[in-house]
Amino acid sequence: MAIPKILKISLYLIGAFVVLIGGMGVWAYQYRDDLFRYIVKEANQHINGRVSIKDFGFTPFANGIGFTFSLFGVQLQDTAFVRHQTKLLSLEQLTLEVDARKLLNKELKITSVCLKEGKISVFVDSNGYSNLSVFNQINAPDTTQVSSQSPMLRQIFGNLKEVCLKDVAFSLQNSPKNQRIGFTAEDLTNKFSQIDSLWKMKLKGEVYFEGLAFNVKRGAFLENKNTTLDLELVFNPDIATLQVLPSSVHVFQDAFSLQGSVDFSSEGHIKLQIDTDTIAAPRALAILPKTLEKKISQFEILPIVTGHVFLDAPLRQRGTDPLVVVDFQTHTFEYQSPIGPLSEVIATGHFTNQVDSLLPIGNQNSHIVAKNVSALFNGVIPMNTAFTVSDLDEPMLVMEGNFRAQLKECNDLIDERNFKLISGNVWVDYCYEGSMNPIFDPHTKQLNGKLDGHAKLENGAFVYLPHRLSFSGMNSGMRFNGKKVEISYLHLKHQKNQIKMSGKVEGLLPYAFNSSGKVIGDIAVFTPDLGLDWIRNYQHAGRSNGKFFTQLVDKILSHLELKTLLIAKKVHYHNFQAENVKGKVYLSEKAIKCENVRMNAFGGTFEVTGGINNFNQAIHQLYAKGRLNNANVQKVFYGFDNFGQETVSDRNLKGKISATFSYSSQLNKDFKLIPSTMNGRLAFELVEAELNHFEPLKKMQRVFFKRRNFDNVRFERLQNEFVLQGQEINMAQMKIASSVLTFFVGGTYSFGTKTDLLVHVPLSNLKRDDNDEQHIIHDLNGRNLIIRAIEEEGEVKLKYHLDWRKKQRNVL
After folding, report:
1. Widest distance between CA atoms in the chain
2. Which domain holds residue 683?
């Protein structure tokens, strides 16, 4: 079968092309040395310096129609190398692919470059000289910039398609601008295409960054970081601008999207927009300069964030920091704040290092703004805040926020054995302005700034279980600052008691920062009716279970010194009742004290000062002194439960009593008297007195004076002083003139078993005449009946005998 004519022609053409290409390869191989010398000559003729190559290899048509030269031991240095001794280029191998067709016309057109195992070192010294001058036009006056329109560059690299770098280190040291850039291209490929005057590039590969320091004093970005680049770039040589199209960069396991531009003009800048979806804050900060990382890290707010970063770094301006703007949204995280743990924290924020565009970029012109921060305080109490941190050299904080909580939801924070929160809502709003590092000074126990705020409690109710105290209807308004809490009002109900309080408390602030110190309260308390019967239900609270608010309250109470002005229309405790009560009460962990407490009680007036010391010990100390004026003695005995004895009770007594007294004793852990420790003194005056149904007198009636009415005995004015020691009351002998007889009594009355009283009854009482009793003067100068009342076998017994000897009377 004959071959078609068109096929024959095609085969002829292919054969001719193969012969031509093969001939070119043979020619190139024969003249490879001449080609190599030509390339070196061309390079040296177009630079202000010298290229040196130790050896070379040649491969024709390695990647198509072109010649590949492998240059070994390549070094490039500028004309001033003898002075500065820094080689611009030093490579183990430089592979160049040259366009064969252009080379036949004696035109050097490089289509591909690959650099292996070496370094590129660019510098600008303090005089402004740069070794990049090697690429300037010969005899050009400017030695600091490379002309984007250099004929040599256009001629040699005009058809460049690809550049690869393998294990090539790059460094830029710009002394006048205080800049340093360093990275190692471990395996990096850059593919080129040209559209008109624009160069499009795709840069992919592994790069290790030593650091990008646009201001060495401020530190470097990407310091000691492995990265993977996937960049799309467009270079416009006419305006010396490199455009970064949407690209990606991986730093360790974190992915960033990237776009922006690099302006190589005289006012050059690198402008980049960087975005990331999820990156842990410590890793994000590690990309920043160390100084900036350290400043931000000190806040210890290090969540996973979604961020948008804008970077504007100057290339020409000396000592100028890059502008950094960051917008971020955190994922939920936990944070140990100065006032306690926060959980489920989420925040939206913004950072810039140039707040005022008229001031230099830097830490002092920086701020971090978080507008929406929400969290759970101690995992329970919702809080919201917004803050601004400015001047990262000396961080200043402006913060506003609030806490909102339902009391019953806070039971997890308190000891359920002692407290139970029933209902109520709490609002706390605050504003702080001052230093952030630190906010609270543990040495001075004060804030390093100004705090203002207010709190509100609405319809609160809780039970204090150890004392079985139930509080409800709690409503309060408070204002606070760094030194004190001012209680505008606090209204509450305790059982039937309506209590209103106001005042101030100083020293609470340190406890918010896990510190401590003296807490001083000055409170006014008013109540129309104050019942104190709950005191009888007192029980010691159990040991704290370590929950937050329980520990906090225990800690505050252990340092509390409370001064209270008490005003009560009525006060009652068991049988004791008083009206118009007013006085000062002092309370601390170790003691309670009342001072000049005045009241209307027992039908007269009553004033007392006293207290209980040593709450923190097993044995407490009770003390009191006071005055009683014109009181109903029956009510006094009834109100004080007959002072713990049964011999003389409110059922026996009538009359008006005035007295001054002092008293002290010890109490056990249940606040019960220890009788053996009692000490006191009572000076009294009793008028219009009656002693009714008093059994010891009635016993005497059965022996003497049978016709007289000992069931109702009226007395003239009685006055004496009793001294209490232990359980014994010692009384000086006193005259008792009654409606039935006159007698003298003295000795010891005991609440225990040591009663020993001597009663002298003048026998002149036998002459008594009810009609002229006032004319009879009874004394001890005559004969007397002596009655001794003595405790024997648990019973007071009476012993009688007559006194005939006057010499014994004064003794008795």
Report:
1. 184
2. 574-692
